[in-house]
Amino acid sequence: MDIYLYDGSFEGYLSAVFEVYKKGGVIRKENTFIPDMFARTFGVQTDLEKADRVWSGLSKKLSADGLHQYFSAFLSELDNIEDQLLNYTRHIFENQASVERDFGNAFVLFVAQTARKVHREKHRMEAFVRFQLTKDDIYFSLVSPDYNVLPLIIRHFKDRYADQRWMIYDRARNYGIYYDLEKVDTVWMEMDKQEGIWDEKELDYQALWQTYYKGANIAGRVNRKLQLQHMPKRYWKYLPELR
Amino acid sequence: MQERVHEKLSILADAAKYDVSCASSGSDRKNTNKGLGNAHPGMGICHSYTPDGRCVSLLKILLTNHCIYDCAYCVSRKSNDIKRAAFTVQEVVDLTINFYRRNYIEGLFLSSGIFKDPDFTMERMVRIAKDLRTIHRFNGYIHLKAIPGASDELMREAGMYADRLSVNLELPTEEGLKLLAPEKKRADMIQPMNYLKNEIIRLEDERKVLKKVPIFVPAGQSTQVIVGAGRETDKDIVHMASRFYQQFRLKRVYYSGYVPISNDARLPGLGQQVPMMRENRLYQADWLMRFYGFNAQELLDDANPHLDTEIDPKLSWALRNLHFFPIDINTADKMLIARIPGIGMNSVNKIIAARSFSALGWDQLQQMGVQLNRAKYFITCKKGAMVKKDYTSEQIRRQILNQSHSKYLKLHSPQLSLF
């Protein structure tokens, strides 16, 4: 078996598809790959031209929604996502008609369901991001989403907070997105001390929010299970109302 | 200063929490002015959940809990001995903007006790919405509670700034209102609803011929009724809702299980359970009417005036109408498939799309998210029927209940899991 290693980026993955499609073989991320002594391994150079050829091939077969699902499923970073997507890709190109909604096919259904999971995580981030205002007038939020969803939430936050500078930092993947009132850039930073960087009114508003949160609860209807179902514990650490 | 705002917020959030609407979707207010916020059509966002499992999407507060009325079911009633407070316009604006900027909320839901008279109250509420929109260029979601008896002129102005307006019917029947809120009249509530409906239709017509028509309550109007305070049946409630959906083109009817707040002899007393299961069933019935093509008469009639608490209303309907089944998944109409217990609208859409590629079997249905343990009694697919025997309604009901019973036990009995 031949194994093709790529750098983890979407363009890298598409470049690998370009290599593997005719020759056969499997695609793996180079940083999580476990060496296999019976297989030959090849490194794949990320090649924007090749990536673009695969993507425009897909664009001819998939709707805008379908392309978005394909990209979303990739962002899941699941262990076997490259295999699933490669199989899906073959299924797409082997059929004349669009197979995007052929949910009876296992690969189509898997990609659709994975995209849905990623979409749900994206939606959660739109809900659970909590900005704190810094002295430099930047609204800053830490997150650690289950999937790599920052690329998917840029538009939402850019449209919504068009008149304030903000940064959302993915602690698990160690990169962030920063809006400077004009455009959104990817940023990396050292996460050390956070004391003393907040605006003087920041804690007041967090306290007011906590007061509101307490007042909005109806004690006679307590239903912790339902609360947890909608807002699993792993998200709590960044929510001021639950601190 | 800060202390006082905390106290007000605490009192006026507490008093507003019985309003259940938390919708923040369905509007169309794009952020085109590079201002703050976006109430663009799409999914609403629930930013948090309180320990009662309800979502927090809007800053839901009363402008004041001072009130000239004395409705038995309401915490803010005149005769109740509680702390009173009132926000200033600036305080509400400031809280809304600062909460919104931190991504705590989707917007503001402002209601109020009625002080002095309806117009006086409504005018202040409209002022807040106007300041947010014009001074702060706020494009987030605003839901204003329309005060019954307020003038048409104020309603029109409110509609220009709010995404949604709602008038609460309070109680599902007129008799209930007479008993528990004798100072209020159904007619006063219907009048603003009618005004809004006509205004929305008028502007819609104008929009067909004119280019520039101002937006007016883009997320429409809704209402709320309290459940379990009076003696009304589920049939009364659901048929009322169905009528109002049609007559006033409401976006939503909300059902709020009565939370006992006093020992008034006309009402369930303190310490009594909130009818949460009943409320849940009513929402399910409401969903069936709005999305699944059921009408009120099919769900509840004189022979069946109450929704079954043990099983959901769709299953309940199916068991009363076994002659409709089995339905063939691979050929039946979309809206017939939507009537099968255990199949939600998401699965319906998947089935319709997938079956045009190849006939579907059990595994595929399960993969798509169909709950076969319930659906299996009502369907056939390319492999025929899964349940060969003809069961009676009662037998199917028992079998389904037994399965869900065991699930319930697993969750609640630690002893059992030892073995």
TrEMBL record, chain A:
<dbReference type="InterPro" id="IPR023875">
    <property type="entry name" value="DNA_repair_put"/>
</dbReference>
<dbReference type="InterPro" id="IPR025404">
    <property type="entry name" value="DUF4130"/>
</dbReference>
<feature type="domain" description="DUF4130">
    <location>
        <begin position="81"/>
        <end position="241"/>
    </location>
</feature>
<dbReference type="Pfam" id="PF13566">
    <property type="entry name" value="DUF4130"/>
</dbReference>
<protein>
    <submittedName>
        <fullName>DNA metabolism protein</fullName>
    </submittedName>
</protein>
TrEMBL record, chain B:
<keyword id="KW-0949">S-adenosyl-L-methionine</keyword>
<dbReference type="InterPro" id="IPR007197">
    <property type="entry name" value="rSAM"/>
</dbReference>
<dbReference type="GO" id="GO:0051536">
    <property type="term" value="F:iron-sulfur cluster binding"/>
</dbReference>
<keyword id="KW-0411">Iron-sulfur</keyword>
<dbReference type="GO" id="GO:0046872">
    <property type="term" value="F:metal ion binding"/>
</dbReference>
<dbReference type="GO" id="GO:0003824">
    <property type="term" value="F:catalytic activity"/>
</dbReference>
<dbReference type="InterPro" id="IPR058240">
    <property type="entry name" value="rSAM_sf"/>
</dbReference>
<dbReference type="InterPro" id="IPR013785">
    <property type="entry name" value="Aldolase_TIM"/>
</dbReference>
<dbReference type="InterPro" id="IPR023874">
    <property type="entry name" value="DNA_rSAM_put"/>
</dbReference>
<keyword id="KW-0408">Iron</keyword>
<protein>
    <submittedName>
        <fullName>Putative DNA modification/repair radical SAM protein</fullName>
    </submittedName>
</protein>
<dbReference type="InterPro" id="IPR051675">
    <property type="entry name" value="Endo/Exo/Phosphatase_dom_1"/>
</dbReference>
<feature type="domain" description="Radical SAM core">
    <location>
        <begin position="51"/>
        <end position="298"/>
    </location>
</feature>
<keyword id="KW-0479">Metal-binding</keyword>
<dbReference type="Pfam" id="PF04055">
    <property type="entry name" value="Radical_SAM"/>
</dbReference>
<dbReference type="InterPro" id="IPR010994">
    <property type="entry name" value="RuvA_2-like"/>
</dbReference>
